[in-house]
């Protein structure tokens, strides 16, 4: 409720008469309000009903059990549902691993929250502020508080609950470590980064239809996503297909400052790998006025008028350029494969 005292927001001492405030001498503004303290404690149902307390414990155990099942499911899926290079197998593997990981982590989180809300002490407490370095007495009190907290959690008296907690915490890290361990001994042939499905005379076709494209079809300022001829029907693994994606842009030839190789473009049409040299995201956002290609993941920006050199962002090298020309029918074709590795830099290619 507000009161109008007939002046512009000011207060007299009488305005605070009967209230628990502290006024400085000669000042009408309260320096502080007294701490009202804690309200009356309301016991939970589990605090007064042993059956409800036991029910809450079973619920916490059930949540830990969900975490355990999720972790076990993740481990089983990791070995049983392996991606075989097809979209369907990769989707199934990712779905199974994702569900297992989600249940493993969600079960632990929900169990911890429910345990704290229903089984642990819920009395409000406070402590006064002290100097940053506590006295030996205070440190001893802190240690005792930790011991009291362990005792308050009742974990020592709840064997089933303790077993569920330990099991879920022991299994969950496997969902993070197992994929890393699984990489050991797998194919580390980095020469695969140095070649793609492009070759001399292979036509540039529109992604994903596979229709060959003529130079005359590409207007100034337009951007076309292309793949090697025959790739849409190819049985090549997905990683090989992913490395071959290319983006072509047509500029006014007078706007081209430089290119990575002499004669690698055709009448203002330039072709660059679509894979960002930072972490491999697809580069697909083109600004016609600035001739900049933008990677949406981390904002690496490349100037296609200047050999796709990096003008902004974390990428450490230009996008590899695909040498192109036209055949006798006017279709765009590759002169060769890329002359450098596509994709992110790695330990043998720092720039």
Automatic annotation (TrEMBL):
It is found in: Cell membrane. This is Cytochrome bc1 complex Rieske iron-sulfur subunit. GO terms for cellular component: plasma membrane. The keyword Cell inner membrane does not apply. It holds the Pfam family Rieske. It comes from Cellulomonas shaoxiangyii. GO terms for molecular function: 2 iron, 2 sulfur cluster binding; metal ion binding; monooxygenase activity; oxidoreductase activity, acting on paired donors, with incorporation or reduction of molecular oxygen. Belongs to the Rieske iron-sulfur protein family. Residues 243-333 form the Rieske domain. Its main location: membrane. Its cofactor is [2Fe-2S] cluster. Keywords: 2Fe-2S, Cell membrane, Disulfide bond, Electron transport, Iron, Iron-sulfur, Membrane, Metal-binding, Oxidoreductase, Respiratory chain, Transmembrane, Transmembrane helix, Transport. The chain crosses the membrane at residues 60-81, 93-116. Residues 27-50 are annotated as: Disordered. Iron-sulfur subunit of the cytochrome bc1 complex, an essential component of the respiratory electron transport chain required for ATP synthesis. The bc1 complex catalyzes the oxidation of menaquinol and the reduction of cytochrome c in the respiratory chain. The bc1 complex operates through a Q-cycle mechanism that couples electron transfer to generation of the proton gradient that drives ATP synthesis. The keyword Translocase does not apply. It is a multi-pass membrane protein.
């Amino acid at each position: 409720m507000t009161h109008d005292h007939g002046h512009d927001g000011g207060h007299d001492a009488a305005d605070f008469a009967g209230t628990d405030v502290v006024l400085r001498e000669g000042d009408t503004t309260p320096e502080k309000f007294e701490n009202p303290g804690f309200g009356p404690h309301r016991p939970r149902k589990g605090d007064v009903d042993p059956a409800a307390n036991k029910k809450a414990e079973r619920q916490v155990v059930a949540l830990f059990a969900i975490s355990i099942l999720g972790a076990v499911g993740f481990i089983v899926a990791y070995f049983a549902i392996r991606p075989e290079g097809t979209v369907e197998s990769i989707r199934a593997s990712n779905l199974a691993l994702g569900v297992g990981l989600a249940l493993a982590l969600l079960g632990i989180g929900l169990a911890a929250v429910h345990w704290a809300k229903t089984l642990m002490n819920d009395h409000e407490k406070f402590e006064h502020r002290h100097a940053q370095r506590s006295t030996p007495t205070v440190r001893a009190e802190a240690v005792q508080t930790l011991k009291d907290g362990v005792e308050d959690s009742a974990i020592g008296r709840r064997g089933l609950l303790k077993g569920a907690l330990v099991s879920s915490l022991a299994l969950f890290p496997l969902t993070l470590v197992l994929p890393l361990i699984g990489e050991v001994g797998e194919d580390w042939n980095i020469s695969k980064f140095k070649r793609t499905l492009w070759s001399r005379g292979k036509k540039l076709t529109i992604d994903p239809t596979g229709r060959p494209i003529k130079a005359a079809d590409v207007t100034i300022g337009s951007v076309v996503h292309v793949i090697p001829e025959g790739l849409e029907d190819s049985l090549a693994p997905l990683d090989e297909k992913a490395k071959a994606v290319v983006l072509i842009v047509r500029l006014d030839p007078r706007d081209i400052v430089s290119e990575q190789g002499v004669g690698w473009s055709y009448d203002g049409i330039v072709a660059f790998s679509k894979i960002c040299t930072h972490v491999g995201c697809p580069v697909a956002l083109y600004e016609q006025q600035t001739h900049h290609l933008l990677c949406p993941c981390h904002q690496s920006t490349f100037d296609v008028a200047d050999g796709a050199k990096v003008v902004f962002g974390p990428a450490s090298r230009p996008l590899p350029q695909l040498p192109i020309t036209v055949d006798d029918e006017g279709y765009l074709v590759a002169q060769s494969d890329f002359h450098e590795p596509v994709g992110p830099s790695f330990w043998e290619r720092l720039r």
